[in-house]
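quick one before i forget lol
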Amino acid sequence: PDTIRGLELGFTLSDAVVSITSLGETVTGVDASGSLTGGVATLSSAGGTWRSSSWSVSGSVSDDGVMEDVSLVAADVPLAAVADHLELDEYGIEGSLDVSARVDGPFDDPIAVVDISSGDVGVGDIRLTSVSGRATLTQQRVVAEGVEAAVFGGDISVDGALERGDTGSDWRFEFGAGASGLDLGRVAEITTGDTTARGRISLTDVVGSGTLRRPNLESRVAWEDVSLGPAVLGSGAGEFALSDGRLSASLAASDSTYSLACFVEEAFDSPSVSGEVVLAGVRMETLLPSLVPPLPPLMLTGAVDIGGPSDAMAIEGSVAVEGEVVRAT
């Protein structure tokens, strides 16, 4: 048709099957209409099914493979399939998203601006719901803006970027984030298997960078109504940082009755802990209120050093006990 000036060809497809050989994927039930003129293919409308996802698209593609004003709307996009193509399948990503996108640029290096309206995302045992936000995707980089989700009974927000590496675990990232009202019980059960933790935690000024294999992270943290087993720790705040596998933390109770400063070397390999717990008037009846019979009104003051590998830590220190002990039968 390019040899005949002004010729315009209209076309329609009905219930077609389209194979994308470079991805090893097939799109079924394709219905489309459009035109070919002057070396440009224009889709007035098109729709079909990819795996479990239904989609519709419109826009134009030139004969040199450049897309322009291509608009895509898709429901129930399967994230496991997307993660597989991005070589991120080792992280157990699953779930689905409803998205709309605009795609421009050549087929071999497109730029897609994707708006996420709703979705559920699973990463291993972690489940995020009510996911929304915007992401800009190229072959080498993903930039996220205003991404929000509900997780662990609270809410998180993230802005950042992810850049392709040689393998999925070598992808580099940088981000800023915040989280509020996270259920400590859910967090502890998934991350450590502990089912006795209770309370709420919030994270502010969260900054992360590095690779998925070797992340760096720093954040401020606050907690409310926290208990670990029979011990009631109340509320408090502090900060922590993870850099090159070394974790540092500085935490203190809101009423200044206790504080913790510690370091964990080789946090991802063979953790070794060193730190100090300072007690400044901890009341035993407040710390362990559920013991039967109840503890007498004793108050602890002092400092305790902790150190050694995580499975064989040593504890040493000096603690003074103040109060009146009443004989009970």
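fyi The two ends are 103 Å apart (CA to CA).
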